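Suppose a colleague, Dr. K., hands you the sequence of a protein chain of 62 amino acids and asks what its three-dimensional shape might be. Before reaching for any lab equipment, you can write down a predicted structure in token form. Begin with the sequence itself:
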Amino acid sequence: MINFMDLKTGQQMVLKGGIVAEVVENMGDGIWAQVKYIEAPESPSLVGTEELCHCEEAVRLI
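The predicted structure, expressed as tokens, is then:
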């Protein structure tokens, strides 16, 4: 499990579904981070978009 309190801007992580995302902003609450999608094998249209990511979606840091 990734500790969202320790996430830094620019870190990349793998999310469920094989999605790779880069941290844009850590909300500082230990639960949410603003991320930008780098790779989204099942939904290529997400690449380049930003969204809030819940800690339970994260699989591992890269």
